């Protein structure tokens, strides 16, 4: 009997190429990725020219955005040429180009680099794309380029699955991919229908093919199509505009004016200057919004984000569940986001998750047997390999996350808030809030006021003080970290995680923790929590201490309160905090919290997603993921 492979296919199969005279051909589809005559000029003629992108880009207003959707990312040539055109058009501050593309068989990084050598004039842009190119894992990948002026959303998987799970409305379509006769799955009627569902009246479309079946399917879906001369040896191609005969209503209820037709916000007030609030503020400001951040503390990172060090890690589940998919997506996005802060707030030392107990050893063995993660994301290590990576003796095997590391959260919060579009108000203790005439006003206990289109609550465990009493179920969990003089232990070269975590030395101190005190509301340091941290550290890493009898009374540290939910998943999205007749979106109130101990991991991606929602732009999360994070699930059932 043949054994059945039950391994979850996290990694996606890459394209298999033949290189003929320097041009890549698909082994599976028997077709070239671009014209042998001149691939770049073909792209400019077929897709950029027939979608009139140059003049449309030049008409973009400040804070506006333009969305292009593409079937078949391939070598990224169409994207690079479009990015170059966007740059040359010099759109105003805050304008964003969104490029949404699906690809079932993505190129490996090596093949992508080789293909890009063919276009020297695109070298600078190609280098940025190569540096940010995502791991070859199934699902959605958001890549932010050019200082936020360009956002690439890549879906690795079947085109139809991508179009069903992505939220966007295109201004222009590139129907690319291999010829319909060679790759019929990409040109089925269901895919063409999905194209119309992501379009609005006036959306343009261009495709290199002139096949009658494709033309008829597009016409049936609401496009007015025409045959025009093709490029090079191709006699004809198709171009058109979406002009449906029936009233148009996208199935995703998302237009270029934002959710449910509400105009995108131009200003926002964010309550909370921790990781969530600071990351969101910077994201919105870079899209052209005026942002005010208020916080009851005296500086950014006053609450749970104030620890001297924090680790970028997740515990990936044995089963590739929706929770694990979110954790992986957030981790990969964060690993692309933080490197720009290397040396000041970000330290890419890698993270070692050790099998600190028999139960954890069994869990890690099952994890490795059940999943096929690319080794560049996570790979198993022996005790000897773990010791070499950590620079100290390690007696257990483990999992190695080479692209992770540790951060200085308060430094990062300060850096995120340093933007001309952001105003900060510290010592602002919110006393009241109300929504009137499409605007929010919040007042402090000292009588100060802030007005804005949009209100976002990022106040961590204190968010319950800002919500109607008893309507939402959030809980604070006390966590105390301990600072150890590096002479008292063997300081590791990387972050080590187990039942506690231990960071490399920073200013001669190593941070360990954190305690998990579910029913303790004491905000002060306690010797009991210090002692617990030391005991668990010694149990996790026997022999780590170079000194005996560390005096817990003299140890430094910090207490923070994590905000958690009943299902230990974050909350992000619209919030109905007014018992009014308005819809959640109409009142433009949002929630970003519930990160627990994973704020450094979840923060960048969820801030990106919520900024998409607030600005009415294509979403960084698929529908299947974002629906699980909505605030409604945390309402108490009455």
Description:
There is one protein chain. By secondary structure, this protein is of the alpha/beta class. The chain folds into 3 domains: 32-255, Vaccinia Virus protein VP39 (Rossmann fold); 262-303 and 410-473 and 569-634, FAD/NAD(P)-binding domain, CATH 3.50.50; 475-565, 2-Layer Sandwich (D-Amino Acid Oxidase, Chain A, domain 2). It has 17 helices and 32 strands. The strands form 7 sheets. Strands 5-6-4-3-7-8-10-9 form an 8-stranded mixed β-sheet, with helices on both faces. An 8-stranded mixed β-sheet has the order 18-19-17-27-28-29-26-30, with helices on both faces. Strands 21-14-13-25-32-31 form a 6-stranded mixed β-sheet. The chain is globular, with a radius of gyration of 26 Å. The N and C termini lie far apart (55 Å). Mean pLDDT is 90; it is low at 251-262 and 579-585.
């Amino acid at each position: 009997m043949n054994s059945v492979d039950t391994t979850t296919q996290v990694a996606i199969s890459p394209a298999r190429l033949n290189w003929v005279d320097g041009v890549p051909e698909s082994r599976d589809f028997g077709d070239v990725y671009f014209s042998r005559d001149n691939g770049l000029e073909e792209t400019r003629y077929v897709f950029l020219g027939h979608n009139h992108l140059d003049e449309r880009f030049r008409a973009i207003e400040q804070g506006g955005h333009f969305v292009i959707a593409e079937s078949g990312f391939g070598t990224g040539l169409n994207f690079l040429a479009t990015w170059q055109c966007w740059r040359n058009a010099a759109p105003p501050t805050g304008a964003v180009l969104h490029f949404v593309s699906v690809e079932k068989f993505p190129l490996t990084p090596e093949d992508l680099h080789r293909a890009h050598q063919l276009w020297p004039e695109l070298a600078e842009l190609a280098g940025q794309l190569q540096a940010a190119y995502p791991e070859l894992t199934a699902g959605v990948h958001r890549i932010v380029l050019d200082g936020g002026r360009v956002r690439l959303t890549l879906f690795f998987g079947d085109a139809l699955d991508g179009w069903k799970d992505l939220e966007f409305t295109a201004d222009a379509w590139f129907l690319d991919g291999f010829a319909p006769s060679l790759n019929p799955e990409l040109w089925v009627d269901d895919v063409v229908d999905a194209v119309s569902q992501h379009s609005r009246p006036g959306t343009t479309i261009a495709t290199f093919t002139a096949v009658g079946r494709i033309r008829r399917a597009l016409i049936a879906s609401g496009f007015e199509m025409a045959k025009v001369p093709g490029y090079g040896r191709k006699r004809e191609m198709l171009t058109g505009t979406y002009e449906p005969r029936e009233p148009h209503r996208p199935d995703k209820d998302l237009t270029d004016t934002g959710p449910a037709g509400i105009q995108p916000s131009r200003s926002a007030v964010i309550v909370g200057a921790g990781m969530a609030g600071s990351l969101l503020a910077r994201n919105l400001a870079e899209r052209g919004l005026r942002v005010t951040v208020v916080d009851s503390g005296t500086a950014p990172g006053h609450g749970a984000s104030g620890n001297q060090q924090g680790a970028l890690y997740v515990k990936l589940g044995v089963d590739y569940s929706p929770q694990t998919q979110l954790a992986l997506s957030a981790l990969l996005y964060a690993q692309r986001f933080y490197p720009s802060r290397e040396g000041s707030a970000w330290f890419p030392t890698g993270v070692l998750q050790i099998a600190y107990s028999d139960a954890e050893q069994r869990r890690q063995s099952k994890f490795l047997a059940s999943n096929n993660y690319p080794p560049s994301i996570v790979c198993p290590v022996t005790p000897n390999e773990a010791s070499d990576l950590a620079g100290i003796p390690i007696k257990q095997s483990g999992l190695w996350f080479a692209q992770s590391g540790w951060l200085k959260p308060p430094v990062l919060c300060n850096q995120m808030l340093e933007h001309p579009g952001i105003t900060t108000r510290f010592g602002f203790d919110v006393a009241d809030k109300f929504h009137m005439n499409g605007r929010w006003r919040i007042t402090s206990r000292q009588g100060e006021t802030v007005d804005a289109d949009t209100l976002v609550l990022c106040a961590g465990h204190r968010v319950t003080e800002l919500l109607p009493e008893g309507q939402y179920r959030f809980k604070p969990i006390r966590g105390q970290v301990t600072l150890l003089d590096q002479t008292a232990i063997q300081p590791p070269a990387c972050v080590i995680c187990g039942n506690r975590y231990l960071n490399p030395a920073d200013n001669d101190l190593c941070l360990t923790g954190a305690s998990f005190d579910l029913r303790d509301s004491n905000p002060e340091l306690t010797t009991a929590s210090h002692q617990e941290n030391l005991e668990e550290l010694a149990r996790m890493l026997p022999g780590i201490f170079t000194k005996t009898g560390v005096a817990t009374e003299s140890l430094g540290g910090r207490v923070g309160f994590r905000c958690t939910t009943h299902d230990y998943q974050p909350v992000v999205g619209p919030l109905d905090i007014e018992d009014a007749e308005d819809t959640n979106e109409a009142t433009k109130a949002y929630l970003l919290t519930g990160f627990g101990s994973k704020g450094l991991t979840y923060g960048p991606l969820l801030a990106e997603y919520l900024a998409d929602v607030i600005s009415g732009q294509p979403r960084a999360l698929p529908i299947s993921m974002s629906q699980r994070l909505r605030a409604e699930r945390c309402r108490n059932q009455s």
